[in-house]
Design a protein that fits this description.
Rossmann fold, 13 helices, six-stranded parallel sheet, alpha/beta, 428 residues, single chain
């Protein structure tokens, strides 16, 4: 279960990376005679300044100043620049943090020093102002958004043995929050940060901040470009997918509609018992094969599309009584379309569960995806499915067509029989 969200600071909460580069480039030029090219510099984004200066000294064979002295010199330049430019908030980040407050434990785990983290959080209105806040002059560059403490812990990478990409700072944040690493999700903008999060055994969301350069975020479980496009439900979905847990998609009056996982396999086979399987995609005869299929479905369908076939769990009993949803289907004529499908357990049919679940799914798809229509393929002799399709708003293209069948996506499964199938469209 997701219990904590851990934020990197630079490039995630404050758009500081361009200013950091300018500070360090000026420091290297003024005091080391080094031209700090950006292509060389971007490898240090997400790491600590001491790690950076130590490596720069080795790479350029520079011994005049220690890493600490170079840091102190850079702080002088930083004061010059921050006093005029300040650290701008990443658009939407503050409101996003506030939206999570009370739902999850929150922490900042940054490579910056603790005083810098505190100052920035206070400037953003995410921490109370206190007597130990010494950088009051810089406040003029940032609007005061509030004065509550939205973060439970602030953790600096300078207080742990190994900087990012080592997991130390994230592991310390989890320990201070009182949660397990596997109960955390990290929001990062850098390659070093994403690698550190995954090394810590945490889920990770990569923020594609153009100011952070072309960072390799392939280690992250999901990527996003705008804080206004994500919410707490999105984080819970990412977390569930990362750890192979079923994500609850939505609820209706009588149903919980959620993703399937391998431990649901017994209940899924029961759905098919006694049903007429002429009109539906069959399960594997081997239950272990079905489990592997579900694992692949989690990884390649849920993770990639964020939709698929979901389970219908009856609230009253907790039983899995059916499944339904939308999938990308390939037809025999080579065309592709999003198609609606379902099956209800025999003893739960004719009680309105299919209509209740599918109607909610169509509304969900309309709200969350850029999908304008959904295909329906039913056999003309399957009277109940034809009636249900019409009730859901299906417009049939050809009531007598028999040449537009859906193809099963299972490698070892037979194709659904072509003859007698009719196609319709539900416009969303």
């Amino acid at each position: 279960m997701l219990k904590a969200v851990i934020f990197d600071m630079d490039g995630v909460l404050v758009d500081s990376e361009p200013l950091h580069y300018e500070i360090n480039k000026l420091t290297a030029a003024r005091h080391c005679g080094i031209n700090l090219d950006y292509e060389y510099y971007k490898q240090y984004i997400g790491s600590t300044v001491f790690f950076m200066w130590d490596k720069i000294k080795r790479d350029f064979n520079f011994d005049k100043y220690s890493a600490q002295e170079l840091f102190d010199l850079s702080e002088v330049i930083k004061e010059e620049l921050v006093s005029t430019k300040g650290y701008p908030e990443v658009k939407g980040a503050v409101n996003f943090v506030k939206s999570l407050a009370g739902k999850f434990k929150l922490a900042v785990a940054s490579s910056s020093c603790l005083s810098n983290i505190e100052n920035n959080m206070k400037k953003l209105g995410l921490m109370n102002y206190s007597e130990d806040f010494v950088d009051l002059n810089a406040l003029e560059n940032v609007s005061k958004i509030g004065n509550e403490n939205f973060f439970d812990k602030l953790v600096s990478g300078t207080t742990v043995k190994n900087p990012k990409p080592a997991p130390d700072v994230f592991l310390k944040a989890a320990a201070e929050l009182g949660v397990e690493p596997c109960e955390c999700i990290v929001i990062e903008d850098s390659s070093n940060g994403a690698r550190a999060a995954k090394a810590a055994g945490m889920a990770c969301v990569g923020f594609l901040n153009p100011s952070s350069g072309e960072q390799d975020l392939s280690m992250a479980d999901y990527l996003f470009e705008d804080f206004d496009s994500i919410d707490g439900a999105f984080l819970e979905m990412v977390y569930a997918h990362c750890f192979g847990e079923p994500w609850k998609v939505l609820e209706t009056e009588r149903l919980i509609i959620r993703e399937m996982c391998p431990r649901d396999v017994d209940a899924i086979y029961k759905i098919y018992e006694g049903n007429d399987l002429r009109y539906t995609e069959k399960l594997f005869d081997d239950m272990e094969k079905e489990k592997e299929y579900i694992k692949d479905y989690q990884k390649y369908i849920y993770n990639f599309y964020d939709f698929g076939i979901w389970l219908f769990e009856e609230k009253e009993t907790g039983d899995i009584i059916g499944r339904g949803g939308v999938e990308l289907k390939v037809y025999e004529d080579g065309t592709e379309a999003i198609e609606l499908g379902y099956i209800i357990r025999k003893d739960k049919q004719r009680q309105g569960f299919a209509y209740e679940g599918l109607k909610a799914i169509l509304e969900y798809v309309k709200e969350h995806f850029d999908i304008k229509s959904v295909n329906v393929s039913v056999h003309k002799d399957n009277v109940s499915s034809v009636k249900l399709a019409k009730k859901l708003g299906t417009v049939f293209e050809d009531a007598g067509g028999d040449d537009i069948p859906a193809i099963c996506q299972r490698e070892d499964s037979d194709k659904i029989c072509n003859e007698g199938y009719i196609r319709g469209i539900i416009y969303l």
